[in-house]
């Protein structure tokens, strides 16, 4: 049966997550025989613990008939006592409170229960009794409540990790406070309290830590909402300070004078304003400096160029401006990672002295969106493995030397969104290349070959023509993502794709392809292809594992697809002719993204169906983190591992998988916005614009504390803006324009940072930032003067900044980004690491400067 795939006939591949269990192959180094009592205790423990044997890779394999010192996750000392227990990521969900056996393991020095789900219970006695512990890792284990005082008695602790990210359960340090908990842990060298709710006045916590923990080397307090003070000056041994996502507003000068400080990570904060010179910087020992994803402005301080030991400099995603000669960084001769992407910089790449290689050590170079108009001369950069020159205005051909940089070890090359017209011949794409992105250029001619071991290839949005090489599948055995969309490719889809067994995303939309779809590709595709012009195939209901359905930008004339499986995580129906009400008798409790914008849906949003549709009220937030294990993923690629660990993604090990989006814009929905919307607590993007919603803005929106983008524009909303909206501290984009809102714009730092555009077209609104004072209410009189906020208001809502720096935007990349998020569910699928790397490396996130407002 032939199916013709005309341009526009977008067929999206439904990518069903395959679960690859990576066997961790935990190796044990002790060879002594297990003591009987230790064995008994371990077996009791296993018996007490409630764990999911599908997820478990250690406990489940403990075999009574074998020496317990050889069990996965267990390590003994020379006398057969268990000294280390590593039960992270075992799917444990309870039973620890009832177990007395854990505290029986008195010789235990290292305990790791990270990445389990203890459902918010307090850290149990069984753990607290282990007074001999030197290493305790309870990160992301869903413990909750106050951290018990008993922790302060674990005096041998060297390494304590209580971090949790985006768990429903928050660990608190309130009473006993931080000082009490830490004052006797004088041997602590590494302390991770990321995401712990520490209540401390001002800089009290700083004092508590600096006065009690003289040995501290690594301090990580990401997302703790603390303020920083000069007490840091007393941390004489501190080598690593990670305060990313802390909501910090100023860089304290004293940080740069810490005598031992080598790594300073302040990414994802709200650091703003100009950076003035740091006079003490030349004496600093700083090796790694990451200020990315803040709001820093002005020129890059000259004193940064005096940091001669610097190996790692990430300034991406700020508002640094001015012209910077790349040559200037040559002074920093140890520089291995340099990322200046997504600022307002003009990077001048011309080189006056070409005799030397510019940066002898450089292995990561990020110059995305740096106003480049030609390729920098990188011929002599023999160590470069990661190069990002995307989003510039580079014209002409891709020079063939580019494939040779890094001396045949180039790993990732991003040339997307430039004005490139072709590839200089002859060229040879090195087999080292794993990631190649040239999308959105003007490239024409035959499709370049796919590098042999590539994971991710994006050739889309170019003018590539002729047919897809028949043997393309021969070299795609490792390929996970391939997009050839929006080109002028013709002919048949090669059957060799059947060899691309790992392929998760194959997008060949908007070409001139014809012929049959190779039967080996997703079975349902045939039907999907057949029906796509008219309606969605009912047989989709049979896809019990369907996770992503993207049929956006087609011509589908159908009702809402109520039949889709409950496994659905991403549903994109945008820009079709879908119609009728959105009302189903079932719910999708896993749905994270729903984009049904620009259709003809109508009617009311029923509270019941609506709230059932997204994450249920108390649904567990998916706080699953992907653990990166360099030895698994890139065992053959030393550099690559290095890149990922050090360069691109500092927080690579702990990544949020939840991202929820509702885009119902540009339809004919009517009636009130249901209160129940306030129950969707993990919502990060809400767009209901261009409908005919009436009534008032629900106060419950104030409960959406993760919301980063809110667009209710062009509706018929009435009444006042609820003051609850001032609680939305992560809001980076707001549009309430063109409604019938009245009264004062609620005061407080949040809403006033938006420009007048956010509020225009509401004749009854008053107060800052509008130029209309609220004469009779007086309520807005105490609004601080505009200049106490960011001066450059327009910029502030030109991009969407959401919780902890997840930056999203609108447009195709946006959806790709989300697309990938759906893949990052709890499975330790190695492929996800690659997706993560590709889609969301922290330094590469796009700052979308498009307005929030879209036309229908
Ligand atoms: C165990 O984990 C698997 C994979 O995540 C899941 O499908 C299954 O429902 C879990 N079993 C239980 C009893 O929770
Ligand atoms: C346990 O180990 C013994 C001896 O090595 C082996 O024969 C047996 O099959 C194992 N049991 C399980 C459940 O793996
Ligand atoms: C286990 O411990 C929990 C919490 O302490 C308690 O509620 C539960 O009754 C205990 N179960 C058993 C079987 O002892
Ligand atoms: C600590 O370990 C020692 C052996 O190294 C043991 O004798 C002692 O009982 C342990 N302490 C506690 C509180 O379990
Ligand atoms: C810390 O140690 C001191 C002296 O040993 C003791 O008096 C104090 O109670 C301890 N504090 C805590 C919180 O355990
Ligand atoms: C932290 O704790 C304080 C006091 O208990 C509470 O008011 C606040 O909401 C908590 N913050 C978070 C993020 O849980
Ligand atoms: C920091 O050190 C100075 C001088 O050594 C000392 O006077 C001060 O009390 C210390 N501050 C704290 C918080 O420990
Ligand atoms: C850079 O930004 C600062 C404000 O942060 C502004 O005063 C200055 O004019 C800008 N310089 C250039 C060259 O745009
Ligand atoms: C490039 O690689 C080759 C082979 O691996 C090696 O012999 C040569 O020294 C390298 N050249 C440079 C400049 O690193
Ligand atoms: C590649 O694919 C083609 C077409 O499927 C096939 O004939 C050929 O044997 C394959 N192998 C190589 C090494 O090209
Ligand atoms: C798959 O790859 C093998 C080896 O490269 C090749 O011989 C074979 O023809 C390919 N299969 C298809 C369907 O192209
Ligand atoms: C916000 O959530 C809290 C707790 O879940 C609830 O008590 C309150 O009524 C909600 N507020 C609104 C305005 O819905």
From TrEMBL:
Signal peptide location: 1-25
InterPro entries hit by this protein: Leu-rich_rpt (IPR001611), Leu-rich_rpt_typical-subtyp (IPR003591), LRR_dom_sf (IPR032675), LRR_N_plant-typ (IPR013210), RLP23-like (IPR046956)
GO cellular component, one term: plasma membrane
Family annotation (SMART domains): LRR_TYP
A GO biological-process term: response to other organism
Regions that span the bilayer: 799-820
One Pfam family linked to the record: LRR_1
Keyword annotations: Cell membrane, Glycoprotein, Leucine-rich repeat, Membrane, Receptor, Repeat, Signal, Transmembrane, Transmembrane helix
Compartments reported by the entry: Cell membrane
Membrane topology of the entry: Single-pass type I membrane protein
Principal location: membrane
Domain Leucine-rich repeat-containing N-terminal plant-type residue range list: 36-77
Family of the protein in this entry: Belongs to the RLP family.
UniProt protein name: Receptor-like protein 35
The organism of origin for this protein: Sesamum angolense
Highest classification ranks of the organism: Eukaryota, Viridiplantae, Streptophyta, Embryophyta, Tracheophyta
